[in-house]
Specification:
4 helices
């Protein structure tokens, strides 16, 4: 699969560079006015109007190939693998027993130890071992 992705990416980059080069070589719309008054290049490689047709058609073909490569890369990029991947949320942190919470009065210097009523407060529940257990469901 990686070889296919690398090949599609290489084709996309080559077509992008080809399109850039072909677009820079092409003449603008105003260049056709000079050909109408006798300054046309009838002795050129492609003929009087052959280069415009050849360059524009080649650019269109390269644009279509670039578009198909972009769609292929988007498709392969969104494929989900069947094997589960382990991420940071899937690995559970080691769970240790929480220390008993001290009451507000025990935190004030010069006061006595916490009373029995504050020691009877239940400790909060430990978080789930898996990150997937923390995501709420509908």
């Amino acid at each position: 699969m990686n070889v296919l992705l690398t090949a599609v990416l290489a084709v996309q980059m080559l077509t992008a560079l080809g399109m850039i080069g072909l677009i820079l070589i092409q003449h603008g719309k105003g260049a056709d006015m000079g050909a109408a008054f006798g300054s046309g290049s009838s002795g050129s490689l492609f003929g009087a109007s052959g280069s415009a047709n050849f360059l524009s058609r080649t650019t269109a073909v390269l644009a279509a190939v670039f578009f198909v490569c972009t769609l292929a890369l988007a498709y392969f990029g969104n494929l989900r693998t069947a094997e589960p991947t382990s991420g940071a949320l899937d690995r559970g942190a080691p769970v240790s027993a929480p220390a008993p919470a001290a009451s507000g009065a025990a935190l004030i210097p010069g006061t006595s130890a916490p009373s029995a009523s504050s020691a009877a407060v239940p400790a909060p529940a430990a978080p789930a071992a898996s990150g997937m257990g923390q995501i709420p469901t509908k």
